[in-house]
User: Which sequence fits this backbone?
């Protein structure tokens, strides 16, 4: 049998980090997405052990300052795209305010490290959310377009097609057929 | 992060196509490590070898002697060891039926072979850049579909 699950990535990561770090007997706080504060000094030996444990779960400790900032930009974008309330200001203003750097600086750094622009990355993320919503099958395309702050379904469909090369309805059809096949082979 | 690179494998029986492909990758700004196979049988042997570093992206020509791309796709999808490979179909066919059928059977990307080198470079650059985001941002590969 096969079931489909839905999860809140923030809760999953927070709980996972807390569980993994518990055995080290250190005072720490998991600050939102992707940031841990240790409330005491941690020996290099312990850091190495923690790194090894986290690596098993595909979690990496980032040391390079540029990579840290890029990761923060990505986290803010994830937060923006997944927020239930539409964000009132332009994303460039939101990012600059949140991260305390000029948007020009953030934008250049981001392109240098990720090979894509912040604008394009936001679109990719929005389309990812749209895909997940389509797969979950709970909302109509009109509702998805509204939730993701698109002016119309047509606008969402065009952007979806630009990024993926296929239309949302073709995507929906492909996902459905994939499920039928995987159910048949079980 | 800067020293990371993507591992790429191409299976194509046409020698010219293989050369073009390798040249195009050399000119991209994302670092890649490209291996080529001459047909489906050679590809499956290569992937089954435990010493092989599995590719991040596998480009599959549909029309190949001995074992065609579609047969390879089905075999690869059956093995959980290959779950992390993004599969790009690289073909001259642009029949809607072919395209949808490969997606349904687990392909992530469908590329119609471009006729000139400049377009090839552009298309491959798009594939690699988008794939890089999936690779570095933990996006859900299961939902990764792209048609070019």
Assistant:
């Amino acid at each position: 049998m096969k079931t489909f699950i839905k999860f809140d990535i923030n809760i999953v990561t927070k709980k996972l980090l807390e569980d993994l770090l518990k055995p080290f007997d250190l005072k720490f706080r998991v600050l939102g997405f992707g940031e841990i504060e240790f409330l005491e000094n941690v020996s290099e030996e312990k850091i190495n052990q923690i790194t090894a444990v986290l690596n098993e779960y595909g979690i990496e400790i980032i040391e390079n300052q540029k990579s840290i900032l890029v990761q923060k930009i990505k986290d803010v974008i994830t937060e923006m795209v997944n927020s239930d309330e539409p964000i009132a200001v332009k994303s460039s203003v939101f990012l600059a305010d949140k991260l305390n750097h000029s948007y020009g600086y953030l934008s250049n750094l981001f392109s240098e490290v990720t090979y894509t622009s912040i604008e394009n990355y936001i679109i990719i993320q929005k389309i990812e959310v749209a895909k997940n919503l389509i797969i979950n099958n709970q909302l109509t395309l009109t509702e998805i377009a509204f939730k993701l702050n698109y002016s119309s379904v047509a606008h969402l469909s065009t952007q979806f097609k630009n990024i993926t090369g296929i239309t949302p309805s073709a995507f929906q059809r492909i996902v459905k057929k994939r499920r039928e096949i995987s159910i048949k082979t079980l | 992060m800067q020293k990371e690179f993507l591992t790429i494998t191409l299976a194509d029986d046409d020698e010219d196509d293989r050369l073009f492909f390798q040249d195009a990758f050399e000119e991209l700004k994302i670092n890649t490590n490209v291996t080529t196979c001459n047909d489906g049988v050679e590809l499956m042997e290569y992937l089954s070898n435990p010493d092989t570093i599995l590719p991040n992206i596998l480009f599959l020509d549909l029309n190949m002697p001995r074992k065609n791309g579609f047969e390879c796709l089905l075999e690869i999808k059956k093995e959980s060891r290959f779950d992390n490979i993004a599969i790009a179909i690289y073909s001259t066919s642009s029949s809607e039926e072919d395209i949808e059928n490969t997606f349904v059977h687990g392909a992530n990307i469908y590329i119609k072979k471009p006729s000139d080198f400049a377009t090839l470079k552009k298309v491959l650059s798009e594939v690699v850049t988008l794939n890089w985001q999936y690779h570095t941002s933990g996006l859900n590969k299961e939902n990764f579909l792209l048609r070019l």
The beta strands of chain A are 28-30, 36-38. Residues 84 and 182 of chain A are 33 Å apart (CA to CA). The first strand of chain A starts at residue 28 and ends at 30. Residues 118-136 of chain A form the longest helix (19 residues).
